[in-house]
Amino acid sequence: MKLSRSLNLYDSISLMFSSMVGPGVFITTGYILSQTPNPNMVLLCWILGGLLAVAGAMSYAKSASIFPFAGGDYVYLKEAYSPIVAFSSGWLALSVNFSASISLSAIAFSKMLFSLLDPSLDVYFFEAKFLGITFSIGNAQLLGMSAILFFTIVNFFGIAIASRIQNLFTTLKILGLALFVVLGFTFGNYNLDHFTSFPLLPNEPKEWGFLLAGVIPVTFSYLGWNMITYVAEEVKKPEKNIYKAVLISCTLVTLLYVLINFLYLSSAPTSVLTGDEKIGVTAAGFLFGQEVTYLVTAFICWVFMGGISAYIIGGSRIYFAMARDGYFFPSMSKLHPKYESPYMSLAFQCGYACLFSLVKEIESLLYLITCSTLLLATITAYTPIIFEKRNFITTFKIPGYPYSTYLYIASNVVIIAVLVWSKPAEALWGIGFTLLSVPMYFYFKSAKRISASPLPPPVFDPLPSDRQISSLLPENEPVPLAGGERV
């Protein structure tokens, strides 16, 4: 049974945009200023992050145009490399990316709510350090776990009610961010003098290192640019609409993020904003007055709750799909007989995300997630080049390809190296989770739970003869045809 192609271009853009615009924009700029205390370079970090998101998403989109099936990077990695590499994709999504993102949103929500009600509530009863990361139990952890449990219960009653709630979160989130930008530039007390005393670009080699370190937390805020590839099988005219959705949505998100951060950075001196986990609230106070901070804090709490809900919906389906294919414990593939929800996956994810909630510092979770994500994105971005070398071609064209893909891969390698250097504990945790996928793969393989069924071959619509040769390989290389011939 195939999924129906029901998503048009507007639907695809909406899905991408809502997936990318998350809670990261409210907290990461304070961390970036800790790495590079230059507001001009901070804006450059957000612009570079957007360009990298576009380059990565376009590479993914090219693979999606060749294999327009549901599953995203899992599909491309399996075809390009091997099942064990594909398994690592699902494993990282399962073990880190979604679960840790749920926890990050939950803890951030708790801390933001405490700052609204009573900051003295944010206390810890126990904390200990293990392998470079501090784990703790406090009111923020308890409230965060309660929020995770609440949205898990909501999902238990089926996707219909969960999606309606999620749509409400998303609609108000986008409206609120747009209103913040419009009112900020219309009535806000922003001051361009906060930029003028700093150079526009890095002047020394070490400043370029600071710039790269600043791009790391920005990368987290752009996560979600690959969402369209997970539903590629449901997109109408995927050879056209996928790349258009990627380009338009990434451009809109980059523009939105740059405008929001311009308002942040022009609202107060850099010394006031550096390291501030609640930079969105602090900037709003300077822009509109302290009486507005309560409303802004409540809005940010709303956005964080929407993040918890969205990650729970998406993550639980990964547990379910992997179990159904034999990659995870069979009980995780059970559906509730009445509500048709993956209730066992939801319950497992709830407990697992609560464990991640014990990480004390939001920043630690942010860097851990970013490291594992970049590792996976780097090897996935190379898949369209592999497919072309194997004679799979498509009319889908990427501006500057394949050099844009090589640049994206090289940038990721450099960013990962900077991350290992600047945040070694979080980077090693991310690498450790990645390496753990190897024994887990062989465990499930030995238990004969892994399905060996191959993907269906890519199907191409017949093309006119004058469009048959449309490879994007450099001009000095032979052009492969669909039938494997070369000219």
UniProtKB/TrEMBL annotation:
Entry superkingdom: Bacteria
InterPro entries named in the record: AA/rel_permease1, AminoAcid_Transporter
Alphabetized Gene3D superfamilies for the sequence: Amino acid/polyamine transporter I
Segments passing through the bilayer: 12-34, 41-61, 81-109, 143-162, 174-190, 210-230, 242-264, 294-320, 341-359, 365-385, 405-421, 427-444
One CC-aspect GO term: membrane
Topology relative to the membrane: Multi-pass membrane protein
Family matches, as Pfam families: AA_permease_2 (PF13520)
A GO molecular-function descriptor: L-amino acid transmembrane transporter activity
Keywords: Membrane, Transmembrane, Transmembrane helix
Subcellular location: Membrane
PANTHER family: AMINO ACID TRANSPORTER, SOBREMESA, ISOFORM B
Protein's recorded name: Amino acid permease
